[in-house]
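Hi everyone, sorry if this is the wrong subforum. Our group has a chain we'd like a structural model of before ordering constructs, and none of us has done structure prediction before. Sequence below.
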Amino acid sequence: MYSYGKGLIFGFHGCDIKTAKKVINLHEPLKRSENDYDWLGNGMYFWENSPARALEFAKNLVQKGKVNQPCVLGAVIQLGNCLDLLDYQKLQVVKAGYKILEFSYNNQQKPIPQNRKVGGSNDFLLRKLDCAVIEGIHSYRNDNNYTPFDSVRGVFLEGQELYPNAGFREKDHIQICIRNPNCIKGFFYARENDNKFEIV
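Answer:
Right subforum, don't worry. Here is the predicted structure as tokens:
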């Protein structure tokens, strides 16, 4: 009961400026990601409180030819009924979800999906296992008439250590996956801070 309706948060999505304009002007909705390797399952993805990380992501998409002019799309979000992976109880839900997935795949004599590292990275950038577990949880809840999760939230350690033996890495972040579009209360362009003023 304590993880429901935590108030409003800011999320940031890296994309092309044309996409941002269409979404902000209500010409089209933000598209869901539906890859089988999505880190938190299928939905609309945001970095929590990190427009700089969203911009870096958009700039990487320029190099891949998927974005022409990088932009940061901000969103005001209410997580609703959240599968929050920073919550100890919700981690137990995910642990149980893996057991269900494992049982199902073993019964079908199919190999369980795996998370994979790519391009010389030390991070699991293709998370087929995590995606399958989380999508399996959503399916199980749907099939058994449980209240669906509106969103999924997780913390990720990513990138190089900030210094030798550090517990922090250069790309650590909190990621949010929105499944219920009604969780998004509005979109906006992320703006630069005006250093002539300060908020006390």
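For your construct planning: Residues 15 and 154 are 21 Å apart (CA to CA). DSSP finds four helices and nine strands in the chain.
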